């Protein structure tokens, strides 16, 4: 069974990163920048310059693959300038985002291939054998991806050590909820240091619960930016952009990046989908003024599910057979566990697992949250849960179409009803087929973790779905396949 849990209120989740008051002495000039403080500005120009250098320099080893007569500094310059130009147009030098190498791989490699195609068509390189050109493109892609990952890796480590200070702008209740979620996810690289709102009296104990002061004037917000080196402003609430337009313009003038966060579950009716450009701690976000959007390709997703699940069933067949035989010998008959779960559009289906625990009754199986720590489980059953081998039978659910390889984890009807009442975003998870793994799972939200955080990540995954994102999640799941906690 899946172990689920709700979390304590933000007031019960005190964090060691509680921020000291950002309000300095009243004599401090609001317009004067200070150089000190823990939250110093991120070197965004240096980041862009590093990425430009990486993308330009990656052309050099690629050209060295070519035969000596075809090596030319002109080719290097054309490739470097062409790739940098295309990457800049595609916002691949956005210093406010720190992607992973897998996230960038299609965009980076695709533009390198286009650059090479243009150079080959306009130069004598078209006389070279295709194998040589393919090798040169592969080396170029490898060098660019490795270099960009090195730059992003340094930034990620730096943000983990010193998260970027941020102000959260919006109604106090919503801003506090967003801040609490960010503080629960220190690895996201953003640390709230203050809330900008007009109604501090609504929840006057904000300092006691989160250690974050409520800033009510533009002067206080500017002072927070100066004293804490704030580089990010998170705008929450549908009406905040209009109500706080003057404050936001002032913060933007101080060099802050303004991100709009969907703190509440979006409406998926006749109004259509909103355009997002990523997520932060499971909140869908977009840079104010940015457009875009993603197209759901259910045919491609289903094709990936059928091909991979079918192949994995064949490969995992001997493992499943051995596990079933050991369970039969050690625990008796009934090695397959069947349980009703809720899938896409709220439709129930029967999910399959290897049996690792025998509930006392059907009622217990349907309403008990977790059996992961039951003392009566055999060592072999503990092994199956710890390695998630008991989940392999769900590949058959994927092959049949009940589930997908990647998607929100399915839950029992009892808990779907319970969580849907407690968390407004929970029902929206069922817009897509449930999955064996998902964005929430690779973020560590497994077992006894926050349902609020989990459904937020699930909805962010659906909002920003792409086939490549599925591939990335599957690769990251494979890297984490053996882990100390069960599902």
UniProtKB/TrEMBL annotation:
Keyword Transferase among UniProt keywords: yes
Any Gene Ontology CC annotation: membrane
Domain of life of the organism encoding this protein: Bacteria
Topology versus the membrane: Multi-pass membrane protein
Compartment(s) where it occurs, according to its Swiss-Prot or TrEMBL record: Membrane
GO MF annotation terms: phosphotransferase activity, for other substituted phosphate groups
Keywords assigned by UniProt, alphabetized: Membrane, Transferase, Transmembrane, Transmembrane helix
Skewed-composition ranges (Polar residues): 1-19
Bacterial sugar transferase domain boundaries: 301-482
Major location (coarse): membrane
Segments for region (Disordered): 1-43
Family: Belongs to the bacterial sugar transferase family.
UniProt protein name: Transferase
């Amino acid at each position: 069974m899946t172990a689920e849990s709700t979390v304590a209120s933000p007031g019960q989740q005190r964090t060691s990163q509680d921020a000291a008051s950002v309000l300095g002495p009243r004599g401090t000039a609001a317009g004067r920048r200070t150089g000190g403080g823990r939250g110093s500005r991120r070197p965004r120009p240096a980041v862009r310059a590093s990425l430009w250098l990486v993308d330009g320099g990656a052309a050099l080893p690629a050209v060295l693959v070519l035969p000596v007569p075809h090596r030319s500094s002109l080719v290097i310059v054309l490739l470097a300038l062409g790739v940098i130009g295309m990457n800049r147009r595609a916002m691949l030098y956005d210093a406010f985002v720190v992607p992973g190498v897998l996230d960038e791989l299609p965009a980076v490699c695709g533009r390198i291939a286009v650059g090479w195609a243009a150079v080959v068509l306009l130069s004598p390189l078209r006389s070279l054998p295709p194998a040589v050109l393919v090798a040169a493109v592969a080396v170029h892609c490898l060098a660019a991806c490795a270099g960009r990952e090195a730059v992003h890796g340094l930034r990620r480590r730096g943000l983990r050590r010193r998260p970027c200070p941020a102000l959260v702008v919006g109604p106090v209740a919503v801003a506090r909820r967003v801040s609490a979620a960010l503080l629960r996810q220190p690895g996201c690289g953003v640390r709230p240091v203050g809330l900008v709102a007009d109604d501090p009296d609504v929840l006057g104990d904000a300092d006691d619960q989160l250690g974050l002061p409520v800033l009510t004037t533009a002067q206080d917000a500017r002072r927070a930016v100066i004293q804490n080196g704030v580089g990010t402003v998170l705008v929450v609430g549908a009406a905040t952009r209009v109500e706080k337009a003057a404050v936001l313009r002032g913060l933007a003038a101080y060099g802050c990046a303004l991100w709009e966060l969907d703190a509440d579950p979006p409406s998926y009716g006749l109004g259509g989908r909103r355009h997002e450009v990523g997520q932060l701690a499971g909140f869908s976000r977009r840079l104010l003024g940015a457009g875009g959007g993603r197209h759901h390709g259910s045919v491609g997703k289903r094709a990936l599910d059928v091909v991979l699940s079918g192949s994995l069933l064949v490969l995992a067949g001997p493992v499943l057979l051995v596990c079933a035989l050991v369970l039969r010998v050690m625990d008796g008959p009934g090695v397959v566990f069947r349980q009703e779960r809720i899938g896409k559009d709220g439709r129930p289906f029967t999910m399959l697992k290897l049996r690792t625990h025998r509930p006392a009754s059907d009622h217990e199986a349907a309403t008990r949250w977790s059996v992961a720590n039951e003392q009566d489980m055999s060592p072999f059953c503990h092994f199956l849960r710890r390695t998630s081998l008991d989940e392999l039978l769900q590949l058959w659910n994927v092959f049949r179409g009940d589930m997908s390889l990647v998607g929100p984890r399915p839950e029992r009807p009892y808990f779907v009803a319970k969580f849907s009442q407690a968390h407004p975003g929970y029902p929206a998870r069922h817009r897509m087929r449930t999955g064996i793994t998902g964005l929430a799972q690779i973020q560590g939200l497994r077992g006894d973790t926050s349902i609020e955080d989990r459904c937020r990540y699930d909805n962010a995954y659906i909002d920003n779905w792409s086939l490549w994102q599925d591939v990335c999640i599957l690769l990251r799941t494979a890297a984490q396949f053996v882990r100390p906690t069960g599902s």
